[in-house]
């Protein structure tokens, strides 16, 4: 007689030790592969984010410096080294127009000018007339050159497309501008690196033939623009104006993104160089 045996359909079945070990090994292999894939993805995202951050910082700093150079008083852009670090200095132009009268032959405390483009009055700054060289902008001695007034000037409200510009003291300029042009300018500003990864913008230190030693190193007049500059990478060249073209300023610097285990001042990280040329559009 044939006997058949079977297990009830609802009865649970186990697995062997070999099957358990294989499952554990496969799970471990999958975990290692997944973690390595995730690590590479995260590292790639962090690297891309860091590069984007450096590119944005470089673009913002170069645009700010380039804009100031474009607005600079003619022949006021110059370079020097302060404490062994490279600097660029310039005189910002606030307003410009053409004058009708100007105290050249004799001293006076006011002059007539064509209305400023703003046309509201109250424009204020130092008066600059025919700044044909840095010597007449900054001067040979400790004071400013003869092309810039020693006192502030304020423009009155316009009348019949003219404005009366009032000087705080009596002034006399050495020569007329061939195009009857004058500028209202601010005091000089300087951009310098500090040798420790910082690029700074300094202001309110006054006019001087030699600005070394006058740059404020702290306070409200010192503005940190970049804090991850590659030390020693900030360089500036000024090509003087010629008959065929205006003056050109070329500056360059590199930003440094440190390795994850390093620091901002090391040289083993990733570098982002930047080179920019700016044409000085203003003429005396």
Automatic annotation (TrEMBL):
Listed name of the protein: Prepilin-type N-terminal cleavage/methylation domain-containing protein
The entry's keywords: Membrane, Transmembrane, Transmembrane helix
Any Pfam family matching the protein: N_methyl
Domain of life, per lineage: Bacteria
Entry keyword Membrane: yes
Signal sequence coordinates: none
PROSITE patterns: PROKAR_NTER_METHYL
Organism placement in taxonomy: Bacteria, Pseudomonadati, Pseudomonadota, Gammaproteobacteria, Oceanospirillales
SUPFAM superfamilies, sorted: Pili subunits (SSF54523)
Transmembrane segments annotated in the record for this chain: 12-33
């Amino acid at each position: 007689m044939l006997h058949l045996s079977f297990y009830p359909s609802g009865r649970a079945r186990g697995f062997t030790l070999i099957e358990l070990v294989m499952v554990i090994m496969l799970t471990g292999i999958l975990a290692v592969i997944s973690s390595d894939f995730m690590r590479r993805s995260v590292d790639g995202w962090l690297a891309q984010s860091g590069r984007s951050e450096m590119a944005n910082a470089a673009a913002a700093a170069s645009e700010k410096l380039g804009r100031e150079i474009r607005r600079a008083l003619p022949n006021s852009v110059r370079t020097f080294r302060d404490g062994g670090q490279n600097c660029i200095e310039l005189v910002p132009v606030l307003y410009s127009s053409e004058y009708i009268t100007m105290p050249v032959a004799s001293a006076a405390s006011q002059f007539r000018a064509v209305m400023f483009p703003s046309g509201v009055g109250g424009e204020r700054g130092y008066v600059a007339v025919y700044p044909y060289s840095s010597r007449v902008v900054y001067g040979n001695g400790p004071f400013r050159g003869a092309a810039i007034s020693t006192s502030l000037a304020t423009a009155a409200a316009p009348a019949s497309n003219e404005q009366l510009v009032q000087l705080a003291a009596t002034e006399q300029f050495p020569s007329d501008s061939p195009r009857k042009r004058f500028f209202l300018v601010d005091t000089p500003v300087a951009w310098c690196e500090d040798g420790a990864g910082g690029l700074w913008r300094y202001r309110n230190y006054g006019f001087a033939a030699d600005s070394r030693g006058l740059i404020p190193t702290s306070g409200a007049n010192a503005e940190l623009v970049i804090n991850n500059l590659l030390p020693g990478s900030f360089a500036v060249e000024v090509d003087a104006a010629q008959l065929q073209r205006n003056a050109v300023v070329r500056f360059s610097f590199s930003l440094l993104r440190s390795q994850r285990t390093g620091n901002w001042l090391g040289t083993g990280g990733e570098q982002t160089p930047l080179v920019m040329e700016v044409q000085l559009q203003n003429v005396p």
